[in-house]
Every structure is written in C-alpha cells, then in structure tokens.
Specification:
There is one protein chain. The chain is an alpha+beta fold. Helices cover about 30% and strands about 20% of the residues. It contains four helices and five strands, in the order ααββαβαββ. It has a five-stranded mixed beta sheet with strand order 2-1-3-4-5, sandwiched between helices.
Length: about 160
C-alpha cells in the first residue's frame, strides 16, 4: 500500500539536514607559513602533550590554506603504546569541513625509533591517493618524538610540497 503524502512528510522530518557552516576566527595574514618539515615539526610539538609523547601513540594533522599557512591543528587518533588507528575518512572529513587546501600528518613513535613501519608507509600511500581524488594533497607525514622527526617527504616517500 503506497504511503500518503502526510506519512512521507513525517518520515522526512525525522532526519537532519546537512549544512556546511564556516567561521574563520584568524585572518590569513596572521597565520604562520609552514614552508618546511622542520616548521611543521615545531608546530606539532607545541600542540603535543609532552608528558604522553613517549608513552602513547597519537596522530594529528595540520590543516593548511592554499598559501601553506596554518589554519588549524586537529587531533585524529590516540591509541596505545604501539599503534593509533588513523582513518583517512576522519582526516579528510576534517579537512573538507575546515576548507583545507593541504594537510600534514604526524604521529609519534613512543619508542623513539623514527624508522617508518610498513603500516606507516601504506597509510601514507592511502592518504596521498585519497588526497589526489579530493584535491587536498598530503604534503608530508612526519614521525615524531620529543627530540627528532622523520619526514616522509624528505626521505623520498612523497614530494614537498606536492
């Protein structure tokens, strides 16, 4: 039996409308440029819990405008001692909502070993591919500790800037 118009209206009113809303609190001229992996590393360190960096693995992103100026820093995941789940859908949902033109990912290795794992390299490839589709390039993927960093871009796993 077909639904009446009234029944269809009641059903459709149960679902939320999705709206894009944007509020920029910092003028572009006041945002720092992120021109090098070292500058990205310094920004990440300023936004990391230094009491946890050697204990729990965490992932964050820098969201950049089309002039490579910092728009926002966002926490993506916090895990255990050996891994944090990084979901590309979460990263790009945040990037799209923030209207980012590029992103830089960082995660820490609590052990201090800066060598990327196979999972780190595979994640980088997935993010590069996803970013190409969305035209939001992954500029770099840093592995960090409180003393040093490893840049996937510098080490030839992707180009800086893409």
């Amino acid at each position: 039996m077909p639904q009446t118009q009234s029944a269809k209206q009641k059903l459709s009113s149960k679902f939320e409308e999705v709206q894009l809303v944007y509020s920029n609190k910092t003028l572009a001229k006041d945002r720092p440029h992120v021109k090098t992996p070292e500058e990205a590393y310094e920004i990440f360190l300023q936004n990391w819990d230094m009491e946890q960096i050697g204990l729990l693995e965490e992932a964050k992103i820098l969201l950049l405008d089309n002039s490579m100026r910092l728009m926002s820093v966002s926490s993506i995941s916090r895990g255990g001692m050996t891994e944090a789940i990084v979901d590309p859908r979460v990263i790009f949902a945040i990037a799209l909502k923030r209207r980012a033109h590029a992103i830089i990912l960082a995660h820490n290795h609590p052990t201090g070993n800066m060598k990327p794992s196979q999972a780190d390299l595979q994640l980088t490839k997935r993010l590069v591919a996803s970013g190409q589709v969305l035209r939001i390039p992954l500029q770099d993927h840093l592995i960090i500790s409180n003393e040093q960093y490893y840049s996937m871009a510098v080490e030839g796993h992707l180009e800086w800037p893409v």
